[in-house]
Amino acid sequence: MLTVIATIRAKAGSELRAKEILTSLVAPTRKEQGCVNYDLHVRADQPGTFVFYENWTSAAALDAHLKTPHVQKALSEMGPHLAGEPDIGRFEMISKPA
Predict the structure, then answer these.
(1) What is the pLDDT of residues 77-97, one digit of tens each?
(2) Which domain holds residue 81?
(3) Which residues make beta-bridge pairs with 55?
(4) Tell me, what CATH number does 19's domain have?
(5) What are the tens digits of pLDDT across the range 47-80?
(6) Separation CA 40–CA 30 (nearest Å)
(7) Residue 84 lies in a domain
(8) Which pLDDT score is estimated for 97?
(9) Which of 42, 51, 54, 52 has its CA nearest to residue 15?
(10) Which of 7, 34, 56, 97 is in the most buried spot, having the most CB atoms within 10 Å?
């Protein structure tokens, strides 16, 4: 399994629009083959900081996700609302699940 933690920061004044765009990704992504979970969070003390916590069955499933029309659309729409480059990390679990 592959875990992704992606942090996206919206420009001041773009928080609501960023939330709308990012939220639109959740339902279609959860239906994708290889998606184990896809959860969007907002930082409680920074309403313009969003974090996706995702688990995928494989890197290939994640790569396919990144090429989907809904992701490509969201990426183009988010451009003017970003405060900087998203921080996207790919992680492999090294502890055993409880």
Answers:
(1) 999 999 999 999 999 989 987
(2) 14-91
(3) 3, 37
(4) 3.30.70.100
(5) 999 999 999 999 999 999 999 999 999 999 999 9
(6) 11
(7) yes
(8) 76
(9) 42
(10) 56
pLDDT of residue 32: 98
Q: Residue 2 is encoded by which pair of tokens?
A: 């592959």
Q: Does residue 52 form part of some domain?
A: yes
Instruction: Render pLDDT for 5-22 as a digit per residue (tens, 0 to 9).
Output: 999 999 999 999 999 999
Instruction: Tell me whether strands 46-56 and 35-43 are parallel, antiparallel or unpaired.
Output: antiparallel
SS (H, E, C) the chain: CEEEEEEEEECCCCHHHHHHHHHCCHHHHHCCCCEEEEEEEEECCEEEEEEEEEEECCHHHHHHHHCCHHHHHHHHHHHHHECCCCEEEEECCCCCCC
Looking up tokens 């939220």 gives: 23
Q: Residue 61: its pLDDT value, please? A: 98
Residue 32 in domain? yes
3 φ, ψ (degrees, to nearest 5): -105, 140
Picking from 35, 26, 14, 33, the residue whose alpha carbon sits closest to that of residue 77 is 14
